[in-house]
Every structure is written in structure tokens, then in C-alpha cells.
Amino acid sequence: MKIGVPKEIKNHEYRVGLTPDSVRELIHRGHEVFVETTAGEAIGFTDDLYQNSGGQICPTAEDVFEQSELIIKVKEPQPSEVALLTPQHTLFTYLHLAPDHDLTDSLIASGATCIAYETVTDEQGRLPLLAPMSEIAGRMAVQAGAHSLEMEGGGRGVLLAGASGVPAAEVLVLGAGVVGANALSVAVGMGAHVTVMDTSMPRLRQLDQQYGNRVSTLYSTRTALDDYMAKADLVIGAVLLPGASAPKLIKYSHLNSMKRRAVIVDVAIDQGGCAESSRITTHDNPVFIEENVVHYCVANMPGAVARTSTLALNNAVLPFAITLADHGIKSALMSDPHLLAGLNVYRGELVSPEVADSQNRSFTDRLRLLSRS
Ligand SMILES: NC(=O)C1=CN([C@@H]2O[C@H](COP(=O)(O)OP(=O)(O)OC[C@H]3O[C@@H](n4cnc5c(N)ncnc54)[C@H](O)[C@@H]3O)[C@@H](O)[C@H]2O)C=CC1
Ligand SMILES: CC(=O)C(=O)O
Ligand SMILES: [Mg+2]
After folding, report:
1. Is the CB of 302 under 6 A from ligand 2?
2. Which of 4, 73, 148, 170 could join 93 in a cystine, given CB atoms 3.0 to 4.6 angstroms apart?
3. What is the dihedral of CA 309, 43, 325, 48, to 10 degrees?
4. How many angstroms separate the alpha carbon of residue 24 from the centre of ligand 1?
């Protein structure tokens, strides 16, 4: 199969869809890989390394799209990339369509087949292509929160660990999944007093067993949220309903109850955010202040540690890329229910029930559509 890797063009996004090592694996299996020039340059993956792995360097994104059937990226396609998609293409990348009506419309109009990393599943019902980035974003969320709590970051001037005779900061983690568990681990390590909330008792039980009395686990109810929002110095939003828009747990009214210049790091912003007041920010300008609460809402946090993130993402993506390339797109989708769960748009039709539900529109059953195409 002909596989294309364009250079990422989102704000401060230095990750790349395939590493030179991944390219080598695909070439070894008889595929062709077209890489846009300097796609990995910023993180040390030079054109020479791709060429040594057997990749072909293309001068522009247009060339990559023209040569390739399977496009492997990191971030959701930007408008200039959507313009290059045709029915010949399968796009394999993060899509986060639920909160993005316009992108959904334009992908449907392109006629391309679009598989979202974040809804591919595994045997345990987990999200193996989201997990590596969630691990990283969870760890970074505490760093971002700690910095935003500093005076210079706009925050209330509080150190997570506190000091002798001065209490540690109160950190509230909403959602005890991959982001939540990683944020919790770093926040505990940095000496904060941490409370984690979830609606999944098994998740809370696991963390309770792991951390004992070093963290407080709390079943997520409106009352618990009202109480703890008012106490928190740093809130980390880490909830997810897979494939769907994030539930808006943090209401505008909570902001008034919060401490002045407390911080919300809304990691769930890529699925629309779990605070009513959240709006997407970028690494260039990561925070804004509303109602005296500092909001950090960067939708591509792992892009800041692009080398670590690219390597971690490739470990997870490569097996699925190999399946798609070796078996062909349709046959791979039809024989692997986990890959099929990633299919959001197929040749001009929306096939994700979660995206359809979030946007109040209709969808076509994935398998039925594949078997009649
Ligand atoms: N901003 C960024 O750069 C990045 C954002 N993310 C996003 O972070 C979010 C979390 O991802 P993961 O941790 O991998 O998901 P996950 O599925 O591992 O965990 C989500 C948790 O939220 C819980 N939850 C759902 N509804 C809840 C509610 N009403 N109250 C309390 N808990 C609730 C679930 O039970 C689950 O334990 C996703 O939106 C993901 O896309 C992930 C990586 C990077
Ligand atoms: C998951 C995601 O949105 C990211 O890594 O940028
Ligand atoms: Mg994102």
C-alpha cells in the first residue's frame, strides 16, 4: 500500500505520524511510504533517516496526498489538509469529531474514509491509541497546573507541596482514567493533597488500594463536585465518554465558588472540554482568566514533548497501520472489530453513533455500510 506522512501544521505541533523505525517496518512488508520533507526534523527525525529507512521524501503536502492511499497523521486535519482529501484516501489520525460540527461536515464532503485513533478499542474495552497520549497529558497537566498557579502564570501564588508549617495545595482530579491516574501520580509525587472523583467504582477502588490514605477517592456527584470545587487550588479535567462530547461537569456557577486565581487544566478540551467556561487555547497562548479562575485548555498538550510523544504514539499505532496496509482498508476493518470502532466516516457517510448523538444527526451502521460497499 502507498502510505503518506505529511508534516503536522497545527500550532506548535512537532509530532510526526510515523518514525523512521516505523517506516522501515512498513517498507520491509512491501509497502511504500511518502514523507513530507522536514516532517520530523524538529525532533531529530531528519529526511536522511527516513530515506535510510526506505521512505521517499516529497517536497509538499500536496505531493504526499497525491501519491498515497493511507494518510497517517497525529492531529485532526486542518482546513488546508481537508482540501487535499479525496475518496481515494483513508485518514488515520486523532479526529475528535464530537464537538466539531464543521470538521465532521468537511470530512463527510471529502468522500474519504476516516479512522479516529481515539475511538479504536482493545479487548478490555480500553482505548489503546488514546492511552499513550493520555499518559503524557496527565503527567503534563500537573506541570502546567503548577506553573499556572505561580504569580507569573496568573495563579494564586501557591506551591503544590506547600512548605513547612504551610499546607500543601488542594488538587482535584475529575476522572480516574488514564489522564486522571497519571495526573494523580505526579501530583502526589509533587507533594500536593489530591482528591480524585469518578463515577466508576472499580477505578476508584483500584486507586484507593494503590495509594491508601495518600489520596482521597470520591464518587462523583453534584454535591461532591460543588464541595470540592470550592476547596481546590488546581482542578484537572480528565473525564471522557468515549467518542462523545465531554460532559460539562464544571458549570459557570462553580467559578464564583472557587478560590480567587485557582486553576483549571481542562485536558478533556479535545472532546469539547468538561467546563462550560473552557475554550481551546494553544501552546503559544495557553491560558486565559475568566471569573478570576485561570484556565489552561491546550488541545494538543503532548505536542510540547513531541519526541517522547511521537515514540509513544508510534508504539501503539504501528500494529494497526500494519494491519490496514497488509490486509487493505476494507478487509482490515471488517475483520477487526477494534479497528472498526475507530471508523468515524466512511466514504461520505457518518458512521459513529457517539458523534451522531453529540451533534444530533443520523449515522449509518458501520458493518452494514462496509458490507454493501
Ligand atoms: N488535551 C490534550 O492534549 C489531551 C487530551 N486528552 C483527553 O483527556 C480526556 C481523558 O482521557 P482518558 O483519561 O484517556 O480517558 P479514560 O476513558 O481513560 O478516563 C475517563 C474517565 O472519566 C470518567 N468519567 C466519565 N464521566 C464522568 C463523570 N460524570 N464524573 C466523573 N468521572 C467521569 C470515566 O469513568 C473514566 O474513568 C479525553 O477527552 C482525551 O481525549 C488525552 C490526551 C491529550
Ligand atoms: C489525544 C490528543 O488530542 C493529542 O495527543 O493531541
Ligand atoms: Mg487533542
Report:
1. yes
2. 73
3. -160
4. 33
CA–centroid distance, residue 315 to ligand 2 (Å): 15
For the stretch 290-312, pLDDT in tens is 999 999 999 999 999 999 999 99
Residue 130 lies in a domain: no
The answer, yes or no, to whether any atom of ligand 1 lies below 6 A from the CB of 306, is: no
Query: Which grid cell sits at 142?
Result: 500537573
Candidates 50, 57, 70, 89; CA nearest to 2 is 70
Examine the residue annotation and report whether 21 is marked as an active-site residue of this protein: no
96 is catalytic: yes
pLDDT score of 116: 98
In a domain, 127, yes or no: no
Domain CATH for 190:
3.40.50.720
Ligand nearest the Cα of residue 312 is 2
Q: Which of 96, 193, 295, 338 is catalytic?
A: 96
Together in a domain, 190 and 264:
yes
* Structural domain ending residue among the three candidates 299, 318, 344: 299
Same domain as 263, residue 235: yes
DSSP state of 75: S
Q: How many domains does the chain have?
A: 2
Q: Which residue has a Cα nearest atom 35 of ligand 1?
A: 200
Within a domain: residue 19? Answer: yes
Which of 276, 164, 250, 176 has the alpha carbon at shortest distance from 219? 176
Q: Residue 76: CB within 6 Å of ligand 1? A: no
Does 278 lie in the same domain as 180?
Answer: yes
H-type helices in 232-328, by residue range? Answer: 252-257, 306-327
Cβ of 309 below 6 Å from ligand 1: no
CA–CA gap between residue 283 and residue 255 (Å, rounded): 24
Q: Measured from the CB, is residue 300 less than 6 Å from ligand 2?
A: yes
Q: Is residue 276 part of a domain?
A: yes
Q: How far apart are CA 247 and CA 240, in angstroms?
A: 8
Q: Does residue 311 share a domain with residue 294? A: no
> Would you say the ipTM is above 0.90?
yes
Q: Are residues 78 and 194 in the same domain?
A: no
What mean pLDDT is predicted for residues 165-187? 98
Give the end of a domain, one of 299, 332, 351: 299
Q: Which residues pair with 215 in a beta bridge?
A: 194
Instruction: Give 87 Cα–ligand 1 centroid separation in angstroms.
Output: 32
